[in-house]
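Rotation project, supervised by the postdoc (A.L.). Task for the rotation student: set up a whole-complex structure prediction and record inputs and outputs verbatim in this book. Inputs entered:
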Amino acid sequence: MAQMLELAAGLPEITVQPGEFLCIEGGAGGSIWVLISGSLVVSKGDVQVNAINRPGAIIGEVGVLLGSNHSASVQAETVCRLYYAADGAALLRTDPEITTYVATGLAERLNFLTTYLADLRHQYGDAPGLAMVGHVLNQLASREGPKARPGSARDPDPEY
Amino acid sequence: MRILLVADLHYALPQFDWVVGNAEEFDLVVLAGDHLNIASAVPLEAQSVVVMRYATTIQALAPLAMSSGNHDLTGPDAAGEQCALWLDEARTLGIPTDGDSLLVGDTLVTICPWWDGEVGKASVAAQLARDAARRPRHWVWIYHWPPLGSPTCWTGSRHYGDADVLAWIEAYQPEVVLTGHVHQSPFKPDGAWTDRIGSTWVFNAGQQIGPVPARIELDLEASQAVWESLMGFEEQSLGEDRPAERTVF
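Outputs recorded:
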């Protein structure tokens, strides 16, 4: 992560006070932050799901790559200093070293998931839902096709 | 012929596991729509892969028929109307699905898609007319949305049903219509898991929490239907001309 601090050193620096939000769950994505110092908490709904306190940690890159809204809220727990790219997509397009670093991090996380799930399948292989994990991961890894567009015009109420 | 009806599993994987574990006891397993959950954090693309894997697992144990519900729609068809594009793969895997008709012994099962526009509606109307012309001794429809005005579409505060399927039932009088969609109906005092419209029996098992789905077991030879849920157990003789009194309340 120290490498990311070096790569991002040319970006503008911002300071966030305790209690301030970097982003709100469901809000529009598009920006990328790199933590220089301080501590942040990540929450979904009322549940805290993660803490970010390692210098060099990247925030917002998944939403930028998927073009999606923020999947969680990120709030400063202490005074935080961060590098900030308002247009995260432009940063990734123009800086191949940062893009490679981000891609490597995502590949590592994917590897964590697949190895964890493979072990789950090994240990709990009798349950149908777990026995299929390997198959599902292979299908998802090779999936091609249009992005799903959910919803019904005839009955748009998601309750039913 | 023994039929298991479940619907509205909404990506509840333990409930799919339960179906896998019990499929072999039936001559036909019916998943009557809303396999996916558009409110889930898991993308529909991933959910559909998982559900398709469940479908092939169930199909290896017992004949399976699966129709779409409104949560299963993933994109527009050639007419620009929303449909369950991913269910095309089920057909290629030999699983009867939207628009197909399945003959099991002397029972014709017509699997109606969730239609989402006038072209889809016309297609369902044509499908029903086609099967009406060749109906054998038993004719069963799978259609996600219960008919309007029926207690099988009672939410607890209003009837939330489909007027078009009601008209089709009145026109063709199939023996049985297997539905879902309105989760609360069997669990409300003024609702029901079964209804009689003319000579047609309509069923909706409802949706419940936990690892075991609310379900209906239907035996066409014995003219018997059984509803099992967290609320309890009720029976219905199909030889009667009206639904039995509710007993779980």
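Student's summary: Chain B touches chain A at residues 13-14, 16-17, 20-21, 38-39, 41, 43-46, 48-50, 53-54, 57, 70-71, 73-76, 81-82, 86, 114-117, 145, 160, 181-183 (CB under 8 Å).
Supervisor addendum: Chain B has a mean pLDDT of 96.
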